[in-house]
Amino acid sequence: MRCIDLSIPIDERNPEAHPIRIERLAHKKGVERLNWVMMRKTITGIISYLAGKRIIKPDDLPDKEFLSLEMVYCSVHTGTHVDAPFHFGTHCGGQESKKIAELPLDWFYQDGVVLDLTHKKPAETITSEDLISALKKIKYQLKPKDIVLLHTGADQYFGTRAYMEKFPGVSAEAIEWLWGQGIKVIGIDALGFDRPYPAMLKDFLSTRDKAALWPAHFCGRKKEYAHIERLANLDRLPRAFGFKVACFPVNIRDAGASFTRVVAILD
Known about the structure:
Blueprint: E1 2-5, E2 21-25, H1 27-39, H2 43-50, E3 69-73, E4 81-83, H3 85-88, E5 91-92, E6 95-96, E7 109-116, E8 125-126, H4 128-138, E9 147-151, E10 169-170, H5 172-180, E11 185-188, H6 197-207, H7 215-218, E12 226-229, E13 241-246, E14 257-259, E15 263-266
Parallel strand pairs: 7-9, 8-10, 9-11, 11-12
Antiparallel strand pairs: 1-15, 2-3, 4-12, 4-14, 5-6, 7-13, 13-15
Helix pairs in contact: 1-2, 4-5
């Protein structure tokens, strides 16, 4: 079995739309943290701690080290993640939208197919005709619950400011066409499913047409599905289909999205 990682990391060094901060507590510093956590639960303990008393000392631990600890403060849309219907709106198809932990797990382990859309330029729109053409080129017919991965090549810019703007968007009608094929999960190797914010805003401000604003996201209020944003390494897949995709989202209560480690599994 061969596994190919199709995810980008959560990395505070990279430009992000939302603030991200990671506190890293080293092993030796962890001893101090351990004492504070244990002693801060009572006023007496806090006073004792501030006075220099420690319950556990470095010499009490192997190599004078405790355990490392990382505290991550970021949006659930950081790194490779799955958007659930609740992210798109409060209602989907006339019913209350499902949150990330409510989606069927079988959606996230299915046969995968990658469609080559690298010819699409930044701020252009991916249409259903583009999808149909890409499928014809690989001689593949979609079946219900296939996980469709859209390869734009935008992941090459990850870690730079260009990643925020150099990618195409997916049209609402393209998503609706995939629904018609029974698709429940769609992924893209770009910052998001919609065109870059500047392109959308420019069109909206010049036309005042509300349809220019986040069409790929808002169409998710019509029918229940999930999409994956910020994939990577789709060019490393040795074939366009004939592999499994595992992309289970982390179980976060009352969330509209969640982190995922997307992996292509080949025999």
